[in-house]
Amino acid sequence: MNRTFCALAFLILLVSCSEGEEESSQNENAGFHFSYQLDTVMVDAGDHFFFLNWGLGLSDVSLDRKYLYNLNPDSYLLEIVDLDNLKLHKTVQLEKEGPDGVEAPYYEKIQVLENGNICLFGQFKINIVSEQGKLVNTIEFDQIKIQNQDQKEEEKIGWNSVLSDDGKLLASTLANVDYKKPAKGIVVIDLDTDSINYIPMDLFGELMQFEIIYQEGDAPGMAFGESTYLSFIDEKLIISSSAYNDVFLYTPSSDSLSHFSFKSSLTDNQKIHNFPNQVSSNKELADAEKAKNEQVSFKEILKIPEQNIFWRVSTDKDRMIADSVVFKQVVTFFDADFKMLKEQELENFHSSRKPFFKDGMLYSFINMEDELAFVRLKPTFSYD
Question: What is the pLDDT of residue 7?
């Protein structure tokens, strides 16, 4: 069995793709209406205690939305929840060592493929296991070394990666070999043919202005940057960030990139650089983070399949009460062509790290006295 994806010294043949600049209309669809109801449901754990310390940060749902998979990174126990019946389905103990060993210093996320395999994304590799816990494949990032035809320096797969639903395409940011420079773009690798498409983008360099580096003396520095989101939806790669009110859409089949920029009337449209990038004390770090965190932040774009529309939540400063900031949460809807349909402030909305849509409802994790529960938002849409 070939457990390691070897792609030494790949040469990118396609260093650019056709690109279209598109800007969505800032005028909302006056005939599009949205309202919602909320409820909370508990998950029956039986005698089991769910791992909730990471707020389901290491979880994903199957493509049919029937099961949620949650990984405990300490014990390597995989918890599988039956979402139709809201109860624990089973647990699977993953092996740390041996032929099926998946031990790693750190896991960033997990992803469930359409065939049921579970991908564990680490800092330097992706381990892919079956639902029975058997190691199916390993993709080693350090063995995928990329040399662009028009660039002398070598680059490699970055930490932000995602697989297509069928597991055939790997999309990732590019990183300089020493991680000291921003990614120059995205690569999409066909794992069957070893072919690579390189999509140059200025986004990651622009995001560097919002990075805060904390370093005291000669100690190793810590960097706090913006979030970037990569996801395959309907065989297209969607790329966005927490700092800018826009989205990039890459279509692998035509090797084309489109850029959609939006204008909000309820939030700012991007962060501003009003804080230092270098700090050397806890006080300086706290002040810089406070200035940055009071600004707008855009979340990942999700799709509501039943409506064929996209959903994105953003947060922004609303007002001050004494020394405390009150934030507002705004949902923006886009149609299948990323035309803005509507933006609306959400009241009493509970946001979690890994929300997902199931049966037309948004499920958002909540910890209720150390029990697994979801706040469900039930939307109603109408058109004039």
Answer: 41
